[in-house]
Write the structure tokens for this entry.
Amino acid sequence: MERKKDFKKKLKEWVNIILGVALASFSFSFFLNPNDIVIGGVSGVGILLKNLISGYDPAITILILNALLLILGLILLGKDFFLKTAFGSLLFPLFIGFFDFIYEILKADTTTLDMVLIALFAALIMGVGLGIVVRNGGTTGGTEVLQKIFFRFFHIPFSVSLFILDGLIISIGLILKVMDLQTFLYAIVFTYLSGVVMDTVIFAGFNKRAVCIVSDKHEEIKEIILKNFERGVTGIRVIGEYSRQEKKMLLCVLSSQEYFKLRTIVESIDRNAFFFAVRASEVRGEGFTYE
């Protein structure tokens, strides 16, 4: 039974990684590459070389740099991450080639679109795609490997590391005159928006509420949480510094929908109950990451 659950979980992760890589590749092929927007990462390096070396295929750059970063990922992030990274690293240029082909077949010309629309839609699609990939433990390779390393070992948010790494490459694009000043500014807007969208997608599933409740009727509230909500509860002895009385505080983690239901119940049981809730950016354990 456990093995079957693990298989379904792994399969879901791989499917999501494929979907995320496809979205990121679509954004690159239909919006970024045709408009020579150097966005950073190995993709940005590919666009740089395409403009410096006539006829150079950005997919070649992506493959070479990804291979080097794969080795670094294997050493620092482990075998499981390496497998998912290798998968995404190979899939990304393949999808780029596929969408480049579709772009030519459809005779699409996104260079005629307003640059504001290009930056907004490219950032939205790319951010969602990369967020799905990272959330499922994978990556499309490139500087995302470095972002994962920075997050694990230095706790630097993905958006911050994205700004630093991609900012360097974008600046090189301006210095080498691959982009004019206007395109450079749009590239910065793209980088910021895609980073925000990516972080939102990565942590969207962890939109939970950590709730602390102090009430004289804590036993009654505890039983409701355990039986009606089927959530774990932790009892913590606390002392009110004003009254100098010792009380018990209940701590539990609920979904947003469950929190609003519990809030109504607590108020009906004890109108004098003191409680507060904070958003939990990540929750792992029984009832959340596994049943």
Q: What stands out?
A: The longest strand covers residues 246-255. The mean pLDDT is 83.
